[in-house]
Design brief:
Rossmann fold, 2 domains, 6-stranded antiparallel sheet, Elongation Factor Tu (Ef-tu), domain 3, alpha/beta, globular, binds flavin-adenine dinucleotide
C-alpha cells in the first residue's frame, strides 16, 4: 500500500442508500465497470456536487475498506441548511455524479506496533470502519477498542457489524456509549470523553485516534492528556 496515491476523478452511480436514523445515511457509490480506486484506510473522498452551473466540493471519510473494489461507502449526517448534505438527501438510486480521491493523512502505520483506541461520535465512525475492516482480517494482533458515542441506542451505525466483529476477533472490543438512553439500554451511558478516563487510565503501549466534530475532539483530547497519553500518541480528524 503506497503512502502517497495521486488523487483521481471517478464517475460514480449511487447504488444503495441505507438509513441509520438520526438523519444519518450510508451512500454506496459504485464505480464504472472495470475502474477501481486505490486509497489507504482513513483517507477521504471529495464529493463534487453540481450547483447552479458551478460545483461545491465537500470531504467525506471513506467508510468502506479498500478491499471493496467495486464501490465506496460514505456515511453522511444531514446538516440543517447544509448545501451538500441536503443535495445528498435529494438523490435517488441510479443518480450519477463525480468524486475525487484519495486525500488525507489520517491513517495508521503499517505494520502497527501499538494497541489502538478509536474514539468517534456520529459519522466520525467512518474512517475507523475502513481501518477495522482492513486490518483485522489481516491478522492484526494488537488490541483494538472502538469507543463510539451517540444519542440513541437504536440508531448506532453498523451496530450488528461491530458485535459480529467482536465475536470473530478476540482482540477487538466495541464500547458504545449512549447520551440519551432509555431504560432498556444496559450498556455505557454518557459522553465518550468520560469513558476515556474509565477504560484507558493506563496509556502504556496505546495510541488514540479521534474523529468527529471539534467540540468532542477537544474534550476527548483533554481527557486523553489527563490520563497521561503523550500528545504525539493522540491523532484526530476534525469534520468542522
Ligand atoms: C476530512 C473531513 C472528512 C469529513 N467526513 C465526513 C463524513 O464522513 N460524514 C459527514 O457527514 N461529514 C463529513 N465531513 C463534513 C463535510 O465535509 C461537510 O462539512 C458537511 O457534510 C456539511 O456540508 P454541507 O455542504 O451540507 O453544509 P455547509 O453548507 O457547508 O454548512 C451549512 C452550515 O452548517 C454548519 N456545519 C457544517 N458542517 C457541519 C457539521 N458537520 N455539523 C454541524 N454543522 C455543520 C456550517 O458552519 C454552516 O453554518 C468531513 C469533513 C472533513 C474536513
Amino acid at each position: 500500500m503506497s503512502e502517497k496515491i495521486a488523487p483521481q476523478y471517478f464517475d460514480v452511480t449511487l447504488s444503495a442508500i441505507t438509513d441509520f436514523g438520526n438523519e444519518t445515511r450510508q451512500f454506496e457509490l459504485s464505480f464504472e465497470p472495470g475502474r477501481t480506486a486505490e486509497f489507504i484506510p482513513g483517507q477521504f473522498a471529495v464529493v463534487i456536487c453540481p450547483k447552479d452551473g458551478k460545483v461545491i466540493r465537500r470531504a467525506y471519510s471513506i467508510a468502506s475498506s479498500p478491499d471493496r473494489k467495486e464501490a465506496l461507502e460514505l456515511i453522511v449526517k444531514l446538516v440543517q441548511g447544509g448545501a451538500v448534505t441536503n443535495w445528498f438527501w435529494s438523490l435517488k438510486q441510479g443518480d450519477r455524479f463525480r468524486v475525487q480521491l484519495p486525500f488525507g493523512k489520517f491513517i495508521l502505520p503499517n505494520p502497527i506496533d501499538f494497541d489502538i483506541v478509536f474514539v468517534a461520535t456520529g459519522t466520525g465512525i467512518a474512517p475507523f470502519r475502513s481501518m477495522i475492516q482492513y486490518f483485522l482480517p489481516r491478522g492484526l494482533q494488537r488490541k483494538v477498542w472502538l469507543l463510539f458515542g451517540t444519542r440513541y441506542a437504536d440508531m448506532i451505525p453498523y451496530h450488528s457489524e461491530w458485535l459480529e466483529l467482536e465475536k470473530r476477533y478476540p482482540n477487538f472490543c466495541y464500547i458504545p456509549t449512549i447520551s440519551r438512553p432509555t431504560a432498556a439500554w444496559k450498556g455505557e451511558t454518557g459522553y465518550v470523553q468520560t469513558k476515556i478516563e474509565k477504560f484507558f487510565s493506563d496509556p502504556a503501549g496505546k495510541r488514540i485516534y479521534i474523529c468527529g466534530l471539534n467540540e468532542m475532539i477537544q474534550a476527548a483530547q483533554e481527557a486523553a492528556l489527563k490520563q497521561g497519553f503523550p500528545k504525539e500518541h493522540i491523532s484526530y480528524e476534525k469534520y468542522d
